[in-house]
Amino acid sequence: MPNGSLSLPARLCLLAWDPARPGTPDTARHHHLVRAGALTELAQRGLLTDDEGIATPVDLDSRTGDAVLDGLLDLVRESMPRRWRTWVRLHARVTFDAVREQLVAEGYLRAEKRRVLGVFPSVEYVLARAAAARALGEETRYVLEGPVPAGEVSQRDAAVAALAAAAELRALGPRTSEPAGTGARREDRIAELTERGGAAAPGLRKVVGEVWRAVSAETARAVAPADG
Question: Would you say the pTM of this structure is higher than 0.85?
């Protein structure tokens, strides 16, 4: 997968920007997704483990060298024990904002100052490297829909594809337009890729479940005004 130096949450954050449909993704769904990616990477690195549903630090001293990951790891260490589903949501925007700033610093995104109604200052984040985002989306779709057995996909690529699909990112294409039966096959593939998480699989299963629930909640809130 391209952009190999990017962390798992950074890849998910970049995937949230769809080159084909400009706009700034900044919703609870995206916040939860990026936080889920950070939790997953910490689990894959062996720094968080699953203890009967609790996200548990392995020790008090290990560091990753990534400011976002280390910040989250410190937060988990310093807080009372919590379940994965709680950490997916709790202060998730803090992680999203920090990862977004990393992408700006590395040149993937560009922060543009604007004024709302010509008066109120605002910042809009736009793709600065659309080709990189497009390539990442294509690679992720290939992992999700291609012929390569899940067991031959790297743990990180498997996690990116499983979580991005769970969040129904626009860059992966809409599920509603899929032929009959394709949705079930995709869900089976997500399950296989989740298992591919290896040592992180117990926690990863819980995190993916939380992202699915977050997506459902966001969709329900979006539909409710039209129904009411």
Answer: yes
